[in-house]
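User: Here's a chain of 514 residues. Predict its fold as tokens.
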Amino acid sequence: MPRFAAIDVGSNASRLLIVQAKEPDRIRPFRSIRIPVRLGHNVFQTGELDPATIDESVEAMRTFAAAMEDARVDDYRAVVTASARSAKNGHELIDRVRREAGITLDTIDGTEEARLVGLAVRESMPLEGHALLMDLGGGSLELSEIVPGRDGAGFVVSLAIGTVRLLEAFMQGGEPVTVDQDRLVREYLDRLLAPHRRKLRRRPWDHVVGTGGNLVAISELAPEAPVVGAAPGAVPVIDVERARTLLRELSQLPAAERATRHDLRPDRADVIVPALYVVVAMADLADVKRIEVPGVGVKEGITTELVEKHYRVWDYGAEDDKLLVAALHLGRRYHFDERHAVQVTDLATKIFDATQSLHGLGAKSRMMLKVASLLHDVGDFINPQAHHKHSQYIIENSDLMGVTPEMRAVIALVARYHRRGAPAVRHQAYRELSPDYRERVRKLTAILRIADALDRAHLGKAKELTVDAQKNLLQLEVRSSQDLALEVWTVERKADLWREVFSSEVRVKVIETA
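Assistant: Prediction complete.
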């Protein structure tokens, strides 16, 4: 029976989940390991991962690697969240884990966290109506909206609110919370949550769902009274008023006494108080009295996706559609020339598909090219003269659901290099990419430059494009009822990167139509 593994390297602990699945809808847990390595220790204050903590994390990954080998896992995905993406030396952890444990660790952003958590929640409980998901980790809080009738999220936001972050910034380890510390924590939460007040209050929520280890613990310590006639195995619920009372109690106790009184692990006893602050603040802002806690998270979302892809029931088309819709929404936010963007995307995709034998890239690269093509001119909103650089900045700093930081970097750079200078190692963002991703940027940029040139006047003149890719020649046959002299001239000027990357000439043949 196929087995799949998910590794979630969080700020407070690292977790391994191994599942087995005979069919896509019959997933069963096989083994679960939690190792309390607080990777987020000091990183939110110093900006760097602690060397000793990196050592512990690498050792934990060795343990996970041995467990996966013993279980004969068919496929896995390992991710690291807020701690590594906030650290200047996060690459050191990733490099050592790959070298010493043989595990490829992906750094994911808050949007990808929210996507995976949403996938896990949908699989674990029925959601009817509007749902607010809050995933609380050691370094960040991800909020997302699930909209009825749509297989995706509404708003998604990642905030610098996490239990380890709050503990180390405002509290003295496991000591009782002072009056001043209480005030500072509440003010900090209010400041970060206030900009999202309208989103959280604009409608009554049918469900507010909380995920993360601390929320599971709180649901056990401050549960809602059982409902008479409730079905067995119902999702646990936090009673917000009981959580408020629990916060008053635990905040006045040292962590050691919290652990003894409520049978908590030491690494839970100190962070449960900051978690309670977040629960109460979020419940008050969303105006709810209960929070459902299904007990799933990032690792369950990963295994669900791995299983569905293995059994070929994963809807890749829907996944791509969501990303393209997100890109369109981003472009519209900056009032981009949508007709030009769509035209260039169509032309670039045709060239990509017809030149598969030359570039050898797959579906992921195709999607990155489409997103970069849609957004290549989005920087016009800031400054048309240097819009390619502003496009890069906007893409780098925008949330696109399902896009990893590495993919976002590629998309941003392809958009940046669609004009002016070619990809160059003197540019830091390009220099920091792996050799494989650098080569992708060069190939995709070469394609985008030609596609953009074919719509130089932004008038959609190229009505039909036929591409004939030979070993030493790319022949483009364009049908149009308008004069294409400017477009042909621009292709000649912008084909230099294509010639360099593919050792191939480019010719444009224009066929006039009525």
